[in-house]
Amino acid sequence: MLPLPVLEKARDELLDYQGLGMSVMEISHRSSAFDELANKTEACLRRLLSISDDYAVLFLAGGATMQFAQVPLNLASPDRPGAYIVDGSWSKKAFVTAQRMGLARLAASSEDSGFKSIPPQSDWDLEGNPAYLHYASNETISGVQYPEPPESKLPLVSDMSSDILSRPVDVDKFGVIYAGAQKNIGQAGLALVVVRKDLLKDLPAGIPDLQSWKIQHKQGSRLNTPPTYAWYIAGLVFEWVEANGGVERMAQLNQEKSDTFYQFLDQSSFYVNNIPSEFRSHMNIPFQIVDESLHGQFVAEAEAAGLSSLKGHRSVGGMRASIYNAMPIEGIEALIGFMKEFESKAG
Ligand SMILES: Cc1ncc(COP(=O)(O)O)c(C=O)c1O
């Protein structure tokens, strides 16, 4: 969900953006009005995450999945592939994409144990001078999250699609942070890329310019016509985060929301979350009913009670509560209330 004040502001400005008599969707991406919007949006993000001038900030089309390819294209070579930690479906997708390009090696995987944990750092195989170390900060489907970024001398590349802006992050520890927008940034189709400027390189001949972070940086992320409306929504969301206490406050609220929900699950003998507590996500909380035959009925009745999008990802089944920044604590309380009632009827 998006914060209501963001949707209201977008609604109010829909037909007339800042007195121009046009929607943001209608103005040129090369106009001074859009320049101003782009600058304001980037500046707000830089304040939120304390991003220094050593880093470029890009707003690119294609979502996070496009970055699964752009990361190796821009950072790796066949002699120096990227190293990947695979601890869930998304980091696996990132790895497989880069591997097909001949630009990845597997450093560690928790697939054999069902993606319920992060492989211990002592087991990571980082031999062969990899160009970078890639990991997904939060595995959206299985609900596994790194409590802290891993320590590494390699440029650290993190897919933060589902936990960016949910907690403070020391950007200086990273080579690259990227994120699809549709969780904590706004509208699908856009990806945010924060990349240390010394990593911006020319791409090998034959690779389209659109894939080059270096060229996109030179062009202000506007080599071609970008997803301007998604960019505008991102700006409204950044302003909302800032007005509501920044990422520090988001982290407190997310802690409170997730603690409340995990405590409820852990005292229950009817519902279960089977991720060890040290790896549990503050953003996506998968849960099951011990009697799995009740899952369909649970999801249908929850939907009817106005609690939507609780069905777990098709690859894992069960249920999942996604409690991104815009979800208020009241949403968790309403869910718990419904779950108690469901248990008393069906349990
Ligand atoms: C952690 C993570 N990485 C990547 C993606 C893919 O994002 P997109 O659909 O923007 O390509 C998602 C989508 O939900 C995700 O949760």
Q: Which properties best describe this structure?
A:
single chain, 347 residues, alpha/beta, Aspartate Aminotransferase, domain 2, Aspartate Aminotransferase, domain 1, seven-stranded mixed beta sheet, 9 helices, 36% helix, 16% strand, binds pyridoxal-5'-phosphate
Describe what you observe in this structure.
It is a single chain. With 347 residues, the chain is of the alpha/beta class. It folds into two domains: 4-243, Aspartate Aminotransferase, domain 2; 246-346, Aspartate Aminotransferase, domain 1. Helices cover 36% and strands 16% of the residues. A seven-stranded mixed β-sheet has the order 1-9-8-7-4-2-3. A three-stranded antiparallel β-sheet has the order 10-11-12, with helices on one face. Helix 3 packs across helix 4. Residues 63-65, 90, 136, 140, 159, 161-162, 180 line the site of pyridoxal-5'-phosphate.
- CATH level-4 homologous superfamily of the largest domain: Type I PLP-dependent aspartate aminotransferase-like (Major domain)
Provide the succession of SSEs. HHEHEHEEEEEEEHHHEEHEH
Listed once per kind, the bound small molecules are: pyridoxal-5'-phosphate
Largest sheet: 7 strands, mixed
Domain unit count: 2
How far is the N terminus from the C terminus?
Answer: 31 Å
CATH topology of the largest domain: Aspartate Aminotransferase, domain 2
Helix content: 25-40%
Write the layout of secondary structure elements.
Elements: H1 4-13, H2 32-49, E1 55-61, H3 63-75, E2 82-86, H4 89-100, E3 104-109, E4 133-136, E5 138-139, E6 144-145, E7 156-159, E8 176-180, E9 190-196, H5 213-218, H6 228-243, H7 246-266, E10 271-272, E11 284-289, H8 295-304, E12 319-322, H9 329-346
Parallel strand pairs: 2-3, 2-4, 4-7, 7-8
Antiparallel strand pairs: 1-9, 5-6, 8-9, 10-11, 11-12
The structure holds pyridoxal-5'-phosphate.
Pyridoxal-5'-phosphate binds next to helix 3.
